[in-house]
Amino acid sequence: MSVEQLEIDALRLKVEQLTEQLMQSEKLASLGQLAAGVAHEINNPIGYVASNLSSLSQYTDNLMMLIQQMSELLPIDKTYNLKQLSDFEYIKQDLPTLLAQSQAGLKRVIDIIIDLKDFSHLDDAEFIDIDLHLGIHSTLNIIDHELKYKAEVQKVFSDLPLVRCVPSQVNQVLLNLLLNAVQAFNKRGIIIISTGSNESWVWFSVKDNGPGIPEDKLEQIFQPFYTTKAKGQGTGLGLALSRSIIDKHLGVLEATSKLGFGSCFTVKLPRK
Fold it and tell me: What is the pLDDT of residue 26?
């Protein structure tokens, strides 16, 4: 095969890879728009439920007080029999717990909706000054269903200055790193998220105690379409897109790893 033919084949392969990467980026943007739309539609009915549940809790307290006051007007034996028939004492104890649990669960849903709306605008290119810790908490909230059964998440946070970035894009990078970490575990593992800063950089890192990555693969994992996952379980674009996002922020995405001891990915963003 001639040198010219090899160059043509290499160029064709590069075009195919870039086309696939563009399609994947468009899919992510479309998914973000869909998620934002779903969050918006859910937000209204959830608002009604939250308002009604708050009123129901107040009404319940009033009714319990009324029952208690009326029972004091009846003979003790008759009051006791009526309460026994209705299992009043158990209801009196259990009802506030049920309402509190419902309100807590509803708050969890509302928090997820808020985070999902903020998180989903992947095409929003506005750079703003943010606290990275808020983005970390938001992302952990989004991915909680993936993490809680597979990993213990530990947070080691330092005092950080505000950093200028596109929050949704940095959140996407963190999401990719967390997903990669948890999917690498053969059993329940530990993920440590730490933050820090110096005169030049503000950073966060995601460290796991998974199987690790061979040293000769540490740069290869950032190449588009490279994946160690089973066929159909990954596109091989997560880390490539993550590095692309951080490059656009004039930052650095670094990886260190040791087989059998886990991996650590560090995202550095310029302080100025």
Answer: 53
Give the number of other CB atoms < 10 A from CB of residue 118.
Answer: 18
- pTM > 0.85: no
How many Å separate Cα 168 from the centre of its chain?
11
For range 88-99, the mean pLDDT: 83
Which two three-digit tokens encode residue 56? 């129901």
Q: What is the DSSP letter of 195?
A: E
Per-residue pLDDT tens digits for 220-234: 666 655 565 544 444
Integer CA distances (angstroms), 160 to 75, 197, 203, 248, 265, in order? 66, 6, 9, 21, 19
Reply yes or no on whether the pLDDT at 13 is more than 90: no
Contacts of 191 (CB under 8 A, 6+ apart): 147, 151, 152, 153, 154, 178, 181, 182, 206, 207, 208
- Residues 87 and 193: their CA atoms lie apart, in Å, by 49
Measured between alpha carbons, how far is 164 from 138 in angstroms, rounded to an integer? Answer: 17
Q: What is the CATH number of domain 128-270?
A: 3.30.565.10
Task: Domain ranges for the chain, please list them.
Answer: 1-123, 128-270
Compute the C-alpha angle 152/195/171, nearest 5°: 75
